[in-house]
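Data deposition worksheet. Section B asks for the primary sequence of the deposited chain exactly as it was used as input, without tags or linkers unless they were present during the calculation. Section C holds the resulting structure in token form. Section D is free text for depositor observations; keep each observation to a single sentence. Incomplete worksheets are returned to the depositor.
Section A, Depositor: J.P.
Section B:
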Amino acid sequence: MPLRPLTAVRPLPHLLLKPRVLPPRTQIRCLTQADVEDPGMNGGYINPPPEKRQFRDPYGDWWDKQERRNFGEPLHEDHDILGVFSPYEYTHFTARKGFFLMGCFITTVLGLCGVVSLYYPDRPSTPRTFPGGLDRELGGKGTILAPSDENA
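Section C:
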């Protein structure tokens, strides 16, 4: 059986194409049905509008003061996400004000570093010299010498 030359071996065209990555079929179905209202879902349970408990009046006359809810009030189906012990929504600053304050901090720190570098004193002393440059102590001829008294 004769050997084919290596130049005659060519890759198959379908191997050169990159495979397409598709989401699973169930994910496509869920994404298309996201806005569908199903009146029979949860056995006809009336789902109140979603309202985070942290935004309710903390001084109101609630039956359950900690969860800020009254007795018999229907719960939203996502009650665990909307409750008091869910992750707290940070509403003290907007993103714009937060970035502004972060920029002010960075500008202040860099400005302070610049001022310190301008007014920072030079070395207060002169470099130390040794008699003979410590030629013998550092290894003899051809070594890097310490500053000597003759060079100063």
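Section D:
The chain has a mean pLDDT of 76.
Residues 95-119 form the longest helix (25 residues).
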